[in-house]
Design a protein that fits this description.
Layout: E1 4-15, E2 24-31, E3 34-40, E4 46-53, E5 58-61, E6 63-68, H1 87-103, E7 106-111, H2 118-127, E8 135-137, E9 142-144, E10 165-167, H3 170-183, E11 188-192, H4 211-223, E12 227-232, H5 235-244, E13 248-251, H6 257-265, E14 269-271, H7 275-283, H8 291-296, H9 299-316, E15 319-320, H10 338-346, H11 351-358, H12 360-365, E16 383-386, E17 403-408, E18 411-414, H13 416-422
Helix pairs in contact: 3-4, 4-5, 5-6, 6-9, 10-11
Bound molecules: zinc ion (ZN).
């Protein structure tokens, strides 16, 4: 075999290429920001500007958060998101979260809504190389009907919800709201279809838009070549979203078997975004989300049914992508990789399947599969060098000290204990 000339060689590695193949000992070579070769077995002779001995640790593609709110700032209550931080400070938080994403090994993110057009600005700045951050699809403001989930400010406060949401009712207003986001160059546009247990005015079993409003939304989003996304938990609402061909169905907590079959047939994507609800159980108490709250908000039902739906989705071969609604005090930014552990511990995924959900399926979700998501020659050099084997213990991916290096476009953007110590 001829000597390999490259910019970077990572050798003595356990390669998890996320194509679906079993992991294998090998080496990865990078040239001109792209993967030049992935080699099985002992590394051939090479000359590289930089060489990293992975010491038997895993090398895998950069991960994806499929439900990311970069501008959420770990607020202690949902309603605080809108009112406690001025937009300028919120923007600074969001820039920090972009850096944090990389430090956590996440090189791709699909936004599920942001204040104003913060994520559009982030995406543009990352793409221009002005700030560090993941490859990103921006969402801009979510769309919500009056008295829907994010229309939470009481009327007598005389406050709208300008920053976080566009309140729209009826097909024409929904179409206009979509167009406002298109005008701001959003890539993906999200509508609230059902409520949420934590909401004071609409629980997860209530539909907050009509079928006609949903259909108008999907039609308008697709007319403009964007991706349609929804927040939905209710059974009937989940059916509507599947039938309407929503590209990204977030939660689908109570979806029935027929709905899952439609999702599978239409090749739509499910993002469980269950990190939030696990966080309510694991750490909610200290933020006032006590037993009474959990009961009143049907948290147990959400967790149990949400996990069961994803177990079925896995069996049906539906594309499931990690993404956990991080950005609240009980599920703070920086814990994105806990989603992989939840898939393994509670939803029947093998560690390799969880990694594929976060990598290959993430790239497919972002429509970047030609360039990202697997370790194959020709793709962008976005990968992690891990201290250990996540196939034996998936939780090490959630420990930033164990991410020896995070590479994006062949450049080390974070590494090991240094990145953990900074946050
Ligand atoms: Zn969300």
């Amino acid at each position: 075999m001829p000597r390999i000339e490259c910019d970077l060689a990572v050798h003595n590695a356990l390669i998890i290429d996320a194509t679906g193949a079993e992991a294998f000992p090998g080496a990865l070579f990078v040239k001109d920001k792209r993967i030049a070769a992935v080699h099985r077995g002992p590394a051939p002779e090479f000359s590289a500007a930089r060489a990293i001995d992975a010491k038997g640790g895993a090398v895998l593609p950069g991960m994806t958060d499929g439900h990311w709110h970069p501008s959420y700032y770990n607020a202690k209550a949902i309603a605080d998101l809108d009112i406690l931080s001025p937009i300028e400070e919120t923007m600074i938080h969001a820039v920090r979260h972009c850096q944090l994403m990389l430090e956590c090994g996440f090189t791709m993110a699909l936004c599920a809504g942001a204040h104003h057009r913060i994520d559009v600005a982030l995406r543009n700045a990352v793409n221009a190389g002005e700030i560090p951050g993941p490859r990103m699809l921006a969402a801009g403001r979510d769309i919500c009907c009056t008295a829907g989930l994010t229309d939470w400010n009481p009327g007598w406060w005389k406050l709208g919800l300008e920053g976080l949401t566009i309140i729209a009712d009826g097909e024409d207003e929904i179409r206009k709201a979509v167009r406002l986001n298109v005008k701001e160059t959003a890539d993906v546009i999200k509508l609230f279809v059902s409520g949420e247990g934590a909401s004071f005015n609409c629980n997860q079993y209530q539909l907050t838009c009509t079928r006609a409003e949903l259909d108008a939304f999907v039609d308008e989003v697709h007319r403009r070549g964007r991706l349609a996304s929804v927040h939905v938990r209710d059974r009937l609402g989940s059916r509507w979203c599947a039938e309407a061909g929503v590209d990204i169905i977030n939660h689908a907590t109570y979806a029935d078997d027929q709905t899952l079959e439609i999702i599978q047939e239409k090749d739509l994507t499910l993002v469980p975004a269950l990190g939030y609800i696990f966080g309510v159980f694991e750490r909610g108490e200290q933020f006032g989300l006590d037993a009474a709250f959990r009961k009143a908000s049907f948290a147990q039902e959400d967790r149990d049914s949400g996990c069961e739906v994803i177990r079925k989705a896995r069996r049906l071969g539906i594309r499931v992508v990690t993404g956990g609604d991080y950005g609240f005090a009980w599920v703070p930014h920086g814990e994105y990789a806990r989603d992989l552990k939840y898939l393994v511990d509670h939803m029947g995924f093998t560690p390799l399947e969880a990694i594929i959900a976060a990598t290959r399926h993430g790239a497919e979700l972002l429509r970047m599969a030609g360039d990202c998501g697997t370790l194959e020659a020709g793709k962008a050099a976005d990968f992690l060098v891990v201290d250990g084997n996540p196939l034996e213990d998936i939780s090490i991916l959630a420990d930033r000290r164990r991410l020896a290096y995070v590479f994006k476009d062949g450049e080390a953007v974070a590494h090991g204990a240094a990145s953990a110590a900074r946050s």
